[in-house]
Amino acid sequence: SAKDAGRDHFKFFSRAMNAKLMERLELEAELRQAIEQQQLMVYYQPVVEVKTQQVVGIEALARWNHPQMGWVSPEKFIPIAEASGLILPLGEWVLKEACSTTRQLQQLGHPVRVAVNVSYQQFRHKGFIELINTTLAQTQLAHEYLELEITESLFIDEQAQTQYMIDILSQLGVRFSIDDFGTGYSALSYLRRFNVHTLKIDRSFIGGIGNNANDASLTRTIIAMAKNFGLDIIAEGVEEQEQHAFLQSHGCGYAQGYFYGKPMPYNDLLDFLQVDEMEAQTEN
Ligand code: C2E
Ligand code: MG
Ligand code: MG
Ligand code: MG
């Protein structure tokens, strides 16, 4: 009967829900343990100047290789960390790791800047400014070398508080970039109001260059707009020569993507930087 079918449907539905919920709770418990036992890693992806393809910076990206499950994508564990509060210890650890790595690179003669992703919950947490200051002091990295990647979600509520924090940190020399630009809240007036330095064009637009006229024209428009506002621009997710050429011909300043270099552990990055600088020397 219809009633039985409905009941079966409900049973199936709730079993599927339970499985989802169980998986989430399990992952959360595993993640908590991974943070405590320092099983997470930070990988670094080069940021290059488009014109020269020289590395000017790196982005720190959290990595989790679980002993049984294998690699768990940040797209999966970052939302769980954000929902559970684990993003606070996780983010603090990534920040420390990233700053101390960058300081080491500088001492080895590679003056790169480091970009660290900051979630809404971290930025809104009351100790955030102090965390940044103490971490930079402890790792002896100058404020100018830290770039915080925030998203448009921070411009929706508590704008006065957001502006206050960005102003204080900017005055100390920290830079701010808008990650995944073009995918979120679309009122652009905040670009005038907030002291941000860089727009990162979301990789979904870059992926469409060459086969989607809208994506190509959006990318061009964002580059032109960033210029008008005096902002730096980083194209994300550049995978092909054709995309690189497009960005170069439209005057995009900086880029990131598999075409230049994938996210990699510190030791690989060191090799990558050395080769990069050797090539620069032979070209000059
Ligand atoms: P995101 O900040 O936009 O980082 C860029 C993502 O694009 C990274 O994914 C990177 O591996 C990937 N990517 C870079 N170049 C290419 C390319 O050429 N092609 C493709 N297909 N992908 C490329 P990942 O590492 O999986 O991170 C996903 C997201 O998770 C990040 O997006 C970021 O929002 C978040 N995330 C990662 N680490 C952290 C962290 O330490 N803290 C916070 N709050 N979020 C993080
Ligand atoms: Mg990012
Ligand atoms: Mg991000
Ligand atoms: Mg992004």
TrEMBL record:
Native source species: Motiliproteus coralliicola
Name under which the protein is recorded: cyclic-guanylate-specific phosphodiesterase
Span of domain EAL: 24-277
